[in-house]
């Protein structure tokens, strides 16, 4: 059983800090929400590393929004629903496609500089989009530019207090309401931060897997602390593996953006053959899950650990102008995008599911909100459409602050209980435990799954449950506890869903089954798995 709290603490005996709004995390969701809230509220923004460490910073492709006269919100909605494979919430997608352009204008107002061509936005097209609607910055450094602009605004804002290198251990709740967070400072001291509203913007869980495009900090903290606090967790079996991450000795799994295929790159197996025509009529621009599985099939068939991405047939100027970051990065490893085929393989990239929210970003725990990759808003369904994640964060960030502004002050003190749990000492180093967990997830809960494998994976993960009874004091221990929670939920959901859909593929149930499985799998701590049907629209 996963405990309610990770540590033993008497809340009466530690310092209390009060604020209006607590923002946990510093990607686009956290930065944008904090700036919006700070217009009339005091904000404490808590990051476990620094403002510049988040998944947003690594987002290359761009942000999807209907800007062009040739595009329509209806087209964007249709593309999103098709990619989401029947599990999107049409209402959530409606909000995304209609409110996305206003969100882009907010980003521009906050200092983001998107690329222009002849005085108008330079729009590109990505996989499974029917129109050119992706705004980008510095070619392929969109996320970095957004983080630059928003973090500069945040640092100058007198209403935002930044707490770098602080770790949120747990949310403090009483009777289904969130009162704030138990936080560990860099020196190890604990503090109770009280807020009228708490917004989780802590990102995804790419570190569940041995190979990921996510930074080290993506350990699923928000999903795990929300689960312990009693929030509903939905759709966590749907994990997007990016088809093309650099796969080269000595190099991290660096993202080779979908936009490279959008500009005409081919995929080739190690024999040099293009292969996507065997798998999908849209070839290299098929949905990500299709491309990722096709690559794995080719790797298995040719007994190789990678395939190639080849854009050598395009002009050198286009490649260097459009993909300066990727071009420079590959060059550091002796690979020239203009003349070389670049070795790539799939890597864990994005979690479609997460903390379930309503259309204003509120969770099933009162006064607890969630925004960005940590959530399951219903926008992405079973498979996220490329470049919709940044749009989702700003659209729902705005809506969360609308709701937060209307919250009445909390009228009572929480019943501050002493948090206690059984303690023992771990025998194995956390770094070994983490590596073992990542290998189990890669082997049994990765791109291709089966009932037998998932059962085995769950058994192996369950052997780590005694870790929750150990004394935890360090960040890496809390992170491992959170990863283990996310791993168990993901494996349980994947075992339960006896079909293949979007980012979830079962070799023993290879077909999509709308008759039995057009529904969400939802978890709540202390309850059995719940299934929620989707009404046909």
TrEMBL record:
It comes from the Bacteria. It is found in: Cytoplasm. SUPFAM superfamilies: FAD/NAD(P)-binding domain, Succinate dehydrogenase/fumarate reductase flavoprotein C-terminal domain, Succinate dehydrogenase/fumarate reductase flavoprotein, catalytic domain. Its EC number is 1.4.3.16. Keywords: FAD, Flavoprotein, Oxidoreductase, Pyridine nucleotide biosynthesis. Its main location: cytoplasm. Residues 20-390 form the FAD-dependent oxidoreductase 2 FAD-binding domain. GO terms for molecular function: L-aspartate oxidase activity. It catalyses: L-aspartate + O2 = iminosuccinate + H2O2. Its cofactor is FAD. Residues 434-524 form the Fumarate reductase/succinate dehydrogenase flavoprotein-like C-terminal domain. It holds the Pfam family Succ_DH_flav_C. Pathway: Cofactor biosynthesis; NAD(+) biosynthesis; iminoaspartate from L-aspartate (oxidase route): step 1/1. Catalyzes the oxidation of L-aspartate to iminoaspartate. NCBIfam families: nadB, PRK07512.1. Belongs to the FAD-dependent oxidoreductase 2 family. NadB subfamily. This is L-aspartate oxidase. It comes from Paenibacillus eucommiae.
